[in-house]
Amino acid sequence: MNMFRIGGAISATLLAAALMAQDSQHPVPATSSKVEPVPSVPQTRESSQPALSWLTDFQKAKAQAKAEGKSILLFFHGSDWCPPCAQMQRQVIDSPEFARYARQSLVLVDVDFPEKSKQSDELSRANAALKAKFNLSQEPGEGFPTLVLLNEAGETVFQETGYAGGGPAEVLPKLRRHTAPAPSTVNSTGFKNLTVDEFAQMTANKANIILDVRTAREFESGHLSGALNLDVTAAGFAEKAVALDKSKTYLVHCAAGGRSVKACETLGRLGFSQLYNLPGGFRAWAKAGMPVEK
């Protein structure tokens, strides 16, 4: 009888020890009354890379863009109530592709209109002023999401409301088309950026060729005197460019500076060595009061 009791006690002890070991491997989380706040600023996630920096002060963003030679991207959204906004953030803003592009070319501005999260009165008024400035719908719940892209001079070069999916492949080409190159990429591409005045001085030499790489419709609405139009977005651009005289100097521009960079890169690969680009493009030229003809 004593042997049975001893054996039972040993079995109970072993069972208790096994249960304690199992609990130590899978501890129950301690409960806490502390609730972490949910940030309203877009949180871009990219492995091994720090999160993107989003500003909420538009004037500060303009100063930074001017100092760094970058474009400004404003993201108008409702972080805690707007399904298309959440979809755009998840598929585009949080993507590694967007993060790489933004670090090189953009100063980011978060313009959030939350309904559940608290926002300071000052920030709420500032965001409402930006909504009016860029002519978004003033009706509650409308006008989101909207992306507004400004060049370093603060001029709107792209604006689009709504998101129907497609991810970075749908959105980034639209932004890149209007984005000037980051300063760090200019010296290695085989062309030189000029100011409007420098560009104008070189157009005075009639031996230099002004190459307008916008569409034919854009060209017809206004262009530089004597310019040659060759649409960089059209099929066969490289084939047509090959027929040009590579010994000449080419003064390349588009509407805002994005497409002309692509044109210069293509021309450089084709063997053209005297290439000059106009950041800000035709818009910067016209704004400076330079002559335009139709």
Features of the shown structure:
10 strands; disordered N terminus; Oxidized Rhodanese, domain 1; alpha/beta; 14% strand; five-stranded mixed β-sheet; elongated; Glutaredoxin; single chain; 2 domains
Q: What's the number of structural domains?
A: 2
CATH architecture verdict of the largest domain: 3-Layer(aba) Sandwich
Distance between the termini: 113 Å
Largest sheet features: 5 strands, mixed
CATH class of the largest domain: Alpha Beta
- Estimated share of beta-strand residues: 5-15%
Oligomer description = single chain
User: Helix fraction?
Assistant: 40-55%
Report on this structure.
- The longest helix is centred in the first third of the chain and has 24 residues, at about 1-25.
- Helix content is about 40%, strand content about 15%.
- About 30% of the residues are buried.
- The protein is of the alpha/beta class.
- Helix 11 links the parallel strand 9 (about 250-255) and strand 10.
- It has helices at about 1-25, 60-70, 85-95, 95-105, 120-135, 165-175, 185, 195-205, 215-220, 235-240, 260-270, 280-285, and strands at about 55, 70-75, 105-110, 145-150, 155-160, 190-195, 210, 230, 250-255, 275.
- The protein is elongated.
- The chain has two domains: about 55-175, Glutaredoxin; about 185-285, Oxidized Rhodanese, domain 1.
- The chain has a five-stranded mixed sheet. It has a five-stranded parallel sheet with strand order 6-10-9-7-8, with helices on both faces.
